Amino acid sequence: MNDVVVVGAGPVGLLLAAELRLVGVDVTVIERAAARSPHSKALTLHPRSLEVLAMRGLAGPFVREGVPMPTGHYGGLPVRLDFSVLDTRFPYTLVLPQLRTEQLLEERLRELGGEIRWRHRALEVRQDADGAEVEVAGPDGTYTLRAAWVVGCDGAGSTVRSSAGIDFPGTRATTTGFLGDVVLDAPPSAPSVDNEHGGFLVVPLADGHHRIAGTTGESLAVPADQPLTFDELRGYVRRVAGTDFGMRAPRWLSRFGNAARQAARYRDGRVLLAGDAAHMHMPMGGQGLNVGLQDAFNLGWKLAAVCQGRAPEGLLDTYHAERHPVGAALLENTQAQTMLGATYTADARALRSVFGRLLAAHPAVNRQFAGELSALDVAYRPAEGEPGGAGERGGTGEPGGAGGGHSLAGTRAPDLGLAGAPEPSLYPLLADGRFVLLHLGPGGDAGRGTADGPGVAAARAAAEAIAGSPDRIRAVTARPTTAHDGWAGRDTVLVRPDGHVAWDAALSSR
After folding, report:
1. Average pLDDT of the segment spanning 443-448
2. 141-152/271-273 β-pairing
3. What are the tens digits of pLDDT across the range 1-11?
């Protein structure tokens, strides 16, 4: 019997499978397609996704091949969100086609001994108290895979979700947008064009093409499943901009809608959901792939711990508790952006003007929305009496905790610079997927946290309670060399494998 069957070999399924293989979990990945699509629905990796990759030592090839953009957009407004002010080593959006992201993640999976069964389609999932079965149609006929756990990473039309009977409530598509990958002989100097007729974004790709994506008053009511023609795309662009920028050589043309749905639960017994199988929305702000990768990163270490008997099955309930609120916030902000960016009444135009002035005149407002879209502000609110637990997007840890005052528990750990550690900063210490127990001393006294005491003992107990064994904890004594909000005066910090704080103690508590 397999430990885990992952249905879907897109970026979410690939990262999840790689996380499981990293710690030796047996995983089978099945994919209905015969090969990867040459067309990339998604183009961007946001700062938090790059941090996720950096925690496993994977960010380098992505950064080298991608094109960094120091800004993002909200609803296609001309006033851009400033990512350069964010507290991260990746203060930008990275433009990299989804196809290349998938290829790099597949390389990672294969390096870890994983493989993909192409042209193997999940027909049905059944489960009992001890495991689940996936009925699969492959090139040589139908067969059954049995596993302890099945994870649906199979998109918005998820077979896994429907087989498990998990509701997918939400709203149907009422607005349709267009996109095309084309060559522009005279591309615009600005990243977006916007007026009373419509609006669109223009994103340069590394191979000389440009992605054009947007809406016009005429495009909104066209069914999303109606093929987009090159003449239509050119007409929409001319209607808004008065020119087609020398548009030619279309490589891919498509439409997208604003249907917004979220799975009622991300876990049902032996079945779990991640990525588009758990949430679908209008592709505003390029968030879908990124939130899906972060779903996988949250689930991976938890599912591995359960598979290897290091944690009770109840740990998997924290996956829903932490990530479902993030998905709900994703739907909310993409629906808000759709109202701003795909509505062309006089009232909507006024709202865009007011909102644009707010973003331009108030850096704190701009920073708030940049933090949301980049996912750097995602925090998980710990459950009562637990070192890690249920969460909310943009929330913070509860006051109190072992150290007194304001706890970091549940918040994202920055890539803290470290002196005296085996690595120059925190994220490389997470490369093997273990917890990291940081002992941080004041004024260069890196040894303070090494002494046996109630704080260190509690931290070790908290780590072992979640990790399940001492060998899943990496203890490091170091002195911080970079400053980050909320981290001053911290003595002992336990960081989860996904880079969120599980437990912390302040120096003042000693």
Report:
1. 40
2. parallel
3. 889 999 999 99
Q: 């210490």: which residue's tokens?
A: 429
Identify the three-state secondary structure at position 30.
Answer: strand
This prediction's pTM: 0.93
- For the chain, what's the residue count? 510
Question: Which residues, at least 6 apart from 132, have a Cβ–Cβ distance to it below 8 Å?
Answer: 5, 125, 126, 146, 147, 148, 149, 150, 269, 270, 271
* DSSP characters over 226-251: SPPPHHHHHHHHHHHHSS-TTEEEEE
Structure tokens at 273: 């959901």
Could you tell me the pLDDT band of residue 445, with boundaries at 50, 70 and 90? Answer: very low
By three-state DSSP, how is residue 89 classified?
coil
What six digits make up the tokens of 270?
């032996």
Q: What percent of the chain has pLDDT over 70?
A: 91
Q: Which residue has the tokens 């997470």?
A: 430
- 133: number of Cβ within 10 Å: 18
Beta-strand pair 2-7/27-31: parallel
pLDDT digits 0-9 by tens, 482-500:
999 999 989 899 999 999 9
Q: Residue 354 and residue 332: Cα distance in Å, rounded?
A: 20
253's enclosing H/E stretch is: strand 247-257
Find out whether 12 and 292 touch, Cβ atoms under 8 Å.
yes
How is residue 64 written in tokens? 């080298």
Q: How far is CA 63 from the centre of its chain?
A: 17
Tens of pLDDT, residue by residue over 186-214, are 999 989 999 999 999 999 998 899 999 99
- Burial per residue of 108-132, b for 16 or more beta-carbon CB atoms within 10 angstroms, e otherwise: bbeebebebbbebbbeebbbeeebb
What long-range pairs does 304-309 form, CB within 8 A, spacing at least 24? 304/19, 304/20, 304/22, 304/23, 304/25, 304/433, 305/466, 305/467, 305/468, 305/472, 306/149, 307/3, 307/4, 307/20, 307/25, 307/148, 307/149, 308/23, 308/24, 308/25, 308/468, 309/468
| Consecutive H or E run containing 118 | strand 116-118
Place of tokens 């920073």: 367
- Distance CA(373)–CA(287), nearest Å, equals 7
Place of tokens 């990262």: 15
pLDDT (mean) for 362-389 = 82
Amino acid occupying residue 319 = Y
- Token pair for residue 327? 């998905």
